[in-house]
């Protein structure tokens, strides 16, 4: 992946790539389904240009950095966290701008998995007699654009399951009361996750119990697409999710005929097959969302939906904000999960625990044993 088989990167190389990654992070929640990209141009030990992709459809990081550097880009080194594009999209190919700017060296953190790029940008640069090194901080670059990589490699969105629970794992009381289990700081964090995601999904039970808006209010940012799973199309026509933004309802083919009772300007529908037990096929739901360019999906409930996603091994990131209290009898989020063998249980890996105000935030990657995967 480099002009040399095993490129040696200096501490200065790593420092400038860290700058590129930090710049890329500024585009979070604004550029999807594009990746977050940052670029830094360095000449004779001085940063002469930098930029990041700040909005979908806007100029790419490399183009901004080159414009910032001007004539100083001649003979310089470009650091970028993702392979530059080689195709015409909403903007011209970045590789052409890099070549015309007479940049001598390009350091790339990781190859772009998109089939339209996927090494073609690197090949173009080398044919233009530009020295290319690839692989600096590759793991960090992949982690930054985790949702983009999963979507491009599998066609499916990255699934984040975010829950607010008591210490004994309850989402609500036995009567359905759940406002509020966690404090305001945890709720603000939930809104931050919403604006960073392309869509937020809940089941019809959550809509009927809580009548949520599913919008971004406690932080500044864009509203995600609201996705509702409603097998029998029980959704009230005056539900709050219709007040602002776009809503997509997944339902059964049988129930789809009743969609005419809803305002077509506010909601669209998709029909998917049912499982043997009469539920919407979650894998087909996720496949359809991926087809609609949803790269990151935030799932907020309810308990049955969370339980099924965990049971089927469909969750990529599990985030649980835990209030230090007990409810006893109540609504949990593992109700459809049952194992007779202790070794079949769902385990958590890459666990991170931190305080979020008065609540605990646990973030991890759920893992099923091979015998439990279906």
UniProtKB/TrEMBL annotation:
Annotated positions binding NADP(+): 164, 180, 210, 231
Molecular function terms, GO-annotated: 5-amino-6-(5-phosphoribosylamino)uracil reductase activity; diaminohydroxyphosphoribosylaminopyrimidine deaminase activity; NADP binding; zinc ion binding
Ligand binding (Zn(2+)): 60, 85, 94
Gene3D superfamilies per record: Cytidine Deaminase, domain 2 (3.40.140.10), Dihydrofolate Reductase, subunit A (3.40.430.10)
SUPFAM superfamilies in alphabetical order: Cytidine deaminase-like, Dihydrofolate reductase-like
InterPro entries the record matches: APOBEC/CMP_deaminase_Zn-bd, CMP_dCMP_dom, Cytidine_deaminase-like, DHFR-like_dom_sf, Eubact_RibD, RibD_C, RibDG_C, Riboflavin_Biosynth_HTPR
Domain of life of the source: Bacteria
Catalytic activity: 5-amino-6-(5-phospho-D-ribitylamino)uracil + NADP(+) = 5-amino-6-(5-phospho-D-ribosylamino)uracil + NADPH + H(+); 2,5-diamino-6-hydroxy-4-(5-phosphoribosylamino)-pyrimidine + H2O + H(+) = 5-amino-6-(5-phospho-D-ribosylamino)uracil + NH4(+)
UniProt keyword list: Hydrolase, Metal-binding, Multifunctional enzyme, NADP, Oxidoreductase, Riboflavin biosynthesis, Zinc
Pathway(s) per entry: Cofactor biosynthesis; riboflavin biosynthesis; 5-amino-6-(D-ribitylamino)uracil from GTP: step 3/4; Cofactor biosynthesis; riboflavin biosynthesis; 5-amino-6-(D-ribitylamino)uracil from GTP: step 2/4
Annotated CDD domains: Riboflavin_deaminase-reductase
Residues that coordinate or bind substrate: 178, 194, 206, 214, 217, 300
EC number in record: 3.5.4.26, 1.1.1.193
Note on how the cofactor is bound: Binds 1 zinc ion.
CMP/dCMP-type deaminase domain sequence ranges: 11-124
One Pfam family named in its UniProt record: dCMP_cyt_deam_1
Cofactor: Zn(2+)
Signal sequence range: none
Active site, per annotation: 62
Biological processes per GO annotation: riboflavin biosynthetic process
Similarity remark: In the N-terminal section; belongs to the cytidine and deoxycytidylate deaminase family.
Purpose of the protein: Converts 2,5-diamino-6-(ribosylamino)-4(3h)-pyrimidinone 5'-phosphate into 5-amino-6-(ribosylamino)-2,4(1h,3h)-pyrimidinedione 5'-phosphate.
NCBIfam families reported in the protein's UniProt record: eubact_ribD, ribD_Cterm
Name of the protein this chain belongs to: Riboflavin biosynthesis protein RibD
Organism of derivation: candidate division TA06 bacterium B3_TA06
Gene name as annotated: ribD
